[in-house]
Amino acid sequence: TAPMPAQPIPKSQASAGLLASIATAKYADAQPLYRQSGQFERLGFEASRQTLASWMVRCGALVQPLINLLRDRLLESAYLRMDETTVQVLKEPGKTAQSTSYLWVQQSGERDRPVVLYDYAPTRSGEVPKALLGDFRGYLQTDGYAGYHAVVAANDLVPVYCWAHARRYFIEALKAQGLNPNKLPTKPPDKARRPLKALTFIRHLYAIEARLRDRPPDERQARRQTERMPVLNNCRAWLDGLLPKVLPASPLGKALGYLDRHWQGLIRYCEDGRLEIDNNRCENAIRPFVTGRKNWLFNDTVHGARSSANLYSLIETAKANGLAPYPFLRRAFTELPRATTVADIEALLPWATTADS
Which end of the chain is more exposed for a tag (fewer CB within 10 A), N or C? Predict the structure, then answer.
């Protein structure tokens, strides 16, 4: 009798295809495990939620070598984007079940062979991005959260900030005046004039960016210098004239303060055509997790949170490279137990899979 091929989970009835289906349903389609367990039961296949959760934890550990290669690729990038969101872990050492933990997202900025990685951490401390980014050097785009300042200083990174966040502050200033930014009157009141002026500057910047979206980086950089700098110069002059006249603690004052404090990082995208005007792509990468969190609410253990982060990483990186999650995971779960060399694992990377197909 021929020896049995290596299985993703030894001595388990779960095939690579079944595991890939469960992972895709949970992490790509936001379908919690208890619901999948009920569906299996109706089909005559008994698999409790606890069993499915155990399988996902094992799969998250199985793909760790592939995650390590993706991280190497990520840190080779010259431009990264980062963001973070909350996650609840019930059985976390030294913390109550109601405490807050975090999922950190890192995304390579280049369009070629993009990588999206998720990492669980118990805190939002500045030590987390320092550990995740290692020796990375280059541009780091964030929302301006102070937790990134330590890694920027330690690695001598070039900070790039997000115009979408600057815009949100001015929208909040409008709302504080009782106005709906989406349903402004034909003739807005005088009190709305200042935040609307800021939003007009920002709208012009985004309109220019929309025209350049699909252009090569060198062309984007050249045209940004000629088309955007006049808008930015006018915005800066308006900001300097208005800052002394507005109370810093007011909603408008907070919006102006954010714009003033982060100005150099906000205009930095004009100096390199690879850079984006905002951090929206990274924020969009968080949305699948946030959608799933609304359904499954929490992770039971730290091992589960880390495994979920690994599986989200594979799925979102596959999608970013134009691959469907299920066949990509099925191949990874099939081949990783048989991999004996680094070359075997490299053959499973999303761009290698694309080349093979």
Answer: N
